[in-house]
Write a structure and sequence with these properties.
Elements (H helix, E strand, L loop, with lengths): L1 H20 L4 H27 L1
Helix pairs in contact: 1-2
Amino acid sequence: MWTLLIILLIVWLVLAVLGFVLKGLVWLAVLGIVLFLATLVIGLVRGSRSRKG
């Protein structure tokens, strides 16, 4: 699961950087940042939940 989480975080980060580099694709940067943060939060929540139980 951690491998998938890291791969998704890298993909979202690349999309965000690409969106900022290409000025017409600012929406892609915003989408990348939102997906990056959502994936990070979900990964942390599931990780902490699996440690407890």
